[in-house]
Design goal:
The protein is α+β, with helices and mostly antiparallel strands and 480 residues long. The protein contains 16 helices and 18 strands. It has an 8-stranded mixed sheet with strand order 1-5-6-13-12-11-7-10. Strands 15-14-16-17-18 form a 5-stranded mixed sheet. Strand 8 and strand 9 (223-225) form a beta hairpin.
């Protein structure tokens, strides 16, 4: 006797998720509004592949040279390492450098797509997720950075988030200048200081002061080692990010950063973007080390409850900045660039919370029921006529009876079903059931027998009126 084959357990890898038609429809509706804003600013779409040579990604994102640290990698047939893209910026840098001679300069583009992180997954932390980026490559002045911030603000307005966000702007030159004035020169210590500053919203001034010094113990007793600055150094850093003290620290780099921020502020003022939409905030720190100038992030300011049930600000849904060194990895001459990235899933979640991304039922097809198996050709003619008229339609391909077919149509979210039994065929008519109106009418009946006898939202029509009747039903459902 043959042993039965062992069944494979259907499992989704950790850190990944499946997307339903409803998820996809809701995301597509959001992305369409974002694209509309980007096009208005003169940006064009471009698409790069999921895989790049690992050296293209460089060390800007993964923290080590090992190909599978931070990225998912494989070797191709000539033994070269390739990796799934970690973000959308490094592939853009490669694309621009490879097509430098034929692209307009500055080059304005937007991209959307999945990125992949070979990291430990957790709540809200995925190994595959979608980003939506916009970048200007080849423009060195603060005008390009200011435009990015204004486009971020206009995007939030277009998504219905007016009054619920602020675009916060700083400059890495200011941060570097503050660290220089404080005498912080060690690269590791600089990174620890920047991470401490980034916790200002979470821990407040006193918490940051502790992290700049010896360290901070949280409520659970866990201790986070600090940057090891003395009191004088900590005061200089806090003053430099606008948190009291004497902010008179000076350095050439600090002055340059402040001048760029002042130029951006003048552009915001001239274009009518007040501090309720875009504001200079010296505490903004973007994590990636390749930023070389202005940095910015979109913060949603409404309150939500975290895993502990505490009310907290929703926080960042995207950000970016100037990265003048990234394209220069591929070309000897310097190539300035600036851009930002939106976390699509996180932004979609925010829109759901604010009621700006209602649940989207994916539009289902009209279902043509198969009442008589020997008349399949007739049903095929019906469904083909609907399709030629531009109406989404399908013929039922299963083997079940009418009740099961109606349940199938409900699960398919069908706006209507078409019924042709022997009686209809003899009379040259069709029965059309409006599934949306029928569901509404069914709420008024107390029992199924009465409802079936009344046949709500069901009409008999001449065969020639098929397309017009179905179009009317779909149009009425869309308006409702």
């Amino acid at each position: 006797m043959t042993e039965p084959a062992q069944l494979i357990e259907p499992r989704l890898p950790r850190g990944l998720e499946d997307r339903t038609p409803q998820d996809i429809a809701a995301t597509e509706a959001m992305i369409a509004r974002i694209k509309e804003v980007y096009r208005r600013y003169g940006f064009d779409p471009v698409e790069t592949p999921l895989l790049e040579y690992t050296q293209t990604l460089g060390k800007f994102l993964p923290d080590t040279d090992r190909p599978n640290a931070g990225v998912f990698s494989l070797r191709d047939d000539d033994e070269q390492w390739m990796s799934l893209r970690y973000d959308l910026t490094a592939p853009l840098a490669r694309f621009f450098a490879q097509n430098y001679d034929r692209l307009p300069k500055p080059y304005r583009s937007y991209r959307q797509g999945y990125v992949f992180r070979n990291e430990k997954p957790g709540p809200g932390r995925f190994r595959q997720f979608m980003q939506f980026d916009a970048d200007t490559v080849g423009a060195a002045g603060p005008e390009a950075d200011a435009e990015m911030c204004m486009m971020m603000a206009d995007t939030m307005d277009a998504l219905g988030l007016a009054g619920k966000y602020v675009v916060r702007v700083n400059n890495r030159k200011v941060l570097d200048g503050v660290l220089e004035a404080a005498g912080v020169v060690d690269a590791g210590q600089k990174l620890t200081v920047l991470r401490a500053i980034d916790k200002l919203d979470k821990f407040g001034v006193e918490g940051v002061r502790l992290l700049l010094g010896a360290g901070r113990k949280d409520e659970s007793g866990d201790f986070t080692k600090g940057a090891g600055l003395d009191d004088r150094q900590a005061l200089i850093v806090l003053a430099g990010i606008g948190q009291g003290g004497d902010s008179s620290a000076q350095s050439a780099r600090l002055d340059e950063g402040r001048a760029e921020l002042a130029a951006m502020q003048s552009l915001f003022d001239a274009a009518g973007y007040g501090p309720d939409r875009i504001k200079i905030d010296p505490s903004v720190v973007r994590g990636l080390e390749y930023y070389t100038g202005p940095v910015f992030e979109i913060e949603l300011t409404f309150a939500v409850r975290n895993e502990k049930g505490e009310q907290v600000v929703f926080g960042s849904v995207g950000g970016g900045g100037r990265y003048d060194g990234l394209v220069s990895r591929f070309r000897a001459d310097p190539v300035p660039a600036t851009g930002f990235s939106i976390g699509v899933s996180r932004l979609a979640h925010a829109l759901k919370l604010t009621g700006n991304l209602p649940a989207h039922e994916a539009d289902g097809p009209v279902v043509v029921l198969v009442m008589d198996r020997d008349q399949v050709a007739s049903y095929q003619a019906i469904v083909s006529e609907l399709r030629r008229a531009g109406i989404r339609a399908e013929m039922y391909l299963g083997s079940s009876g009418m009740n099961a077919q109606m349940k199938y149509a409900n699960r398919r979210n069908a706006p209507a079903v078409v019924i042709e039994g022997s009686n209809e065929r003899a009379q040259g008519v069709l029965t059309i059931k409006d599934m949306i109106a029928g569901a509404e009418a069914a709420r008024n009946f107390t029992d199924n027998a009465t409802m079936r006898a009344a046949r709500p939202a069901q009409v008999n029509i001449p065969r020639a009126d098929l397309v017009k009747t179905v179009r009317d039903i779909i149009g009425a459902g869309a308006q409702g």
